[in-house]
Amino acid sequence: MDRRTAGRQPDAPWEPSPRRDSVPADDDAREQWFRDLAHQATVFGLPIVWQHALLQREAAERPMSTFSHERDLARPGFAAFRVPNVDTLYSSAWIDLTSGPVDVCLPDFGDRYFTVQLLDAASNTQNISRRTIGAARRIRLVSPESPGSPDVPDEDGVVTMPVGSPVTWALMRIQVGTHDLAEVRALQDAVALVPLGGPSVLTVEPAAGDVEDDADAFLTTLDSALRLQGHRLEETALVMRLRQLAAIDDEPARRGVERGYREALALLDASRPLLGTRTGSGWTRVADKGRHGYNYLNRAVMNFVGLAANVVDENTSFNTYVDEHGVRLDGRAGASYRLVLDPPPTTDAFWSVTLYEASTGHLWDAPEGRYSVGSLSGGRDTSAGDSITISHERPAGGTWLPAPAGEFFLVLRVYSPGPDVVSGDWIPAPVRPVRPAGSTR
Fold first, then answer.
1. Can you give the residue ranges of the DUF1214 domain (predicted)?
2. Same-domain check for residues 318 and 225
3. End of a domain among 155, 176, 195?
């Protein structure tokens, strides 16, 4: 070996410098720089931040790896997330895998529909359901990032399921039928989470503020979430670039961050129609739910509209804000609409149509609590051609879905959908105006 090179180490050109990257010195350029960074951070980070803010709130209320059960169906004012269904009881848990695996132990649900949806930090989804695990009753959740996992032997009848984040959101849904709330509540209580590494010792930082309206709170929460949950290796360059947002120390930078954050939220709001594939009948078939990969705009819009959308194999959904002529759905001034699903969607479980206020994504406070109609509320799975009237005023007869005196949208959910629904071969019929707004009888 040449003595002149002995003991020398080759350069490592991609080893990060300890020095923070430069930012423009000119005020206008500096504002634009941070505006662009904040816009990127908002689109990339929205599902991460909004979900982590929910974790922060709920971790302050109950231990990790413990279910909290909604004992009644969602109603107006439901605060956990937007666009909830009114077909199932929800249960929510944040499962901590940082100390080792956690077993999910299930009761016998019989023929009743259920799923335990598992969401990673960026809202990518897996399901524990009859579709994915068959008759298995014990599912072992494991995380590759879990340090010090106990040596847990394989057991007969245990299904091992790797998940995407050290802390995973489990959202359980159990079908509610007619007059069986007590039975469904008992099933909720029978689902057990068993940490094999002992009780959780994880500390979750308190919420930084209103992440839906405060740029500083949003960015602080994004930093907390990424430090807790990590990120994909392929996202390292993006995450490192966004760390420049820690250098906000002057007025031009703060103006840029605020502008970028507000403009990104406005973009997401305007992009609601991009949620899926237009069917040609006014409905949009919501696509790629829970399978976002690196489609950051798609996943941000999806979560901006409502957290915890499930994959199409488990729950295929359609939404529409317009009638068959492309006119916004609006219940004011005597407007009335009719929806006829003939044939109805094929399903191994059931389907429903639910109405929400367009401005908020929340349930409207409808008379008689009629927020939804479907195959469990009138037998339309066996009565092809039956129609749904959607109006502010009660119709003379038939199935009525009450609408507010204002703009609204509809979501059609098909649980355990048939192959023609999953493939897109079946699409819902258009919403037809019977009386347009402002007409007289």
1. 315-418
2. no
3. 195
DSSP-derived 3-state class of residue 58: helix
Confidence category of residue 148, pLDDT binned at 50, 70, 90: very low
Please compute the mean of the pLDDT values over residues 352-366 and round it to a whole number.
Answer: 93
| Judgement on whether residues 429 and 333 belong to the same structural domain of the protein | yes
**Is 45 contained in some domain?**
yes
| 104 and 179 co-located in one domain | yes
What pLDDT digit, counting tens, does each position of 109-141 carry?
999 999 999 999 999 999 999 999 999 999 999
DSSP for residue 407: B
Same domain, 155 and 84: yes
DSSP per position, 203-272: -PPPP-S-TTT-HHHHHHHHHHHHHHH---GGGHHHHHHHGGGGG--SHHHHHHHHHHHHHHHHHHHHTG
Greatest Cα pair distance, the chain, in angstroms, is: 100
Residue 381 above 50 pLDDT? no
For residues 381 and 394, give the distance between their C-alpha atoms in angstroms, rounded to a whole number: 23
In a domain, 14, yes or no: no
pLDDT reading at 2 higher than 80: no
The CA distance from 436 to 333, in Å, is 8
Structure tokens at 371: 């927020």
CA distance linking residue 304 with residue 316, whole number of Å: 19
Residue type, 368: E
Establish whether the linkage from the previous residue to 343 is cis, with ω within 30° of 0: yes
Q: Which residues pair with 193 in a beta bridge?
A: 104
Q: What is the CA radius of gyration of the chain?
A: 25
Least confident of 1-5, 70-74, 346-350, 436-440: 1-5
- Using 50, 70 and 90 to split pLDDT, how confident is the model at 144? low
| H or E segment to which residue 59 belongs | helix 27-59
39 and 179 both lie in a single domain: no
Amino acid at 386: D
Total domains present in the chain = 3
Query: DSSP character for 273?
Result: G
CA distance 132 to 116: 11
Angle value at C-alpha 81, between 40 and 141, nearest 5 degrees: 85
- Shared domain check, 283 and 422: yes
Boundary residue ending a domain (254, 270, 286):
270
Range(s) of the domain holding residue 425: 273-435
Q: How confident is the model at residue 145 (pLDDT cuts 50, 70, 90)?
A: low
* Residues 225, 302 share a domain: no
Query: Do residues 354 and 85 make contact, with C-beta atoms less than 8 angstroms apart?
Result: yes
Q: What is the pLDDT of residue 385?
A: 46
Same domain? For 129 and 215 the reply is no
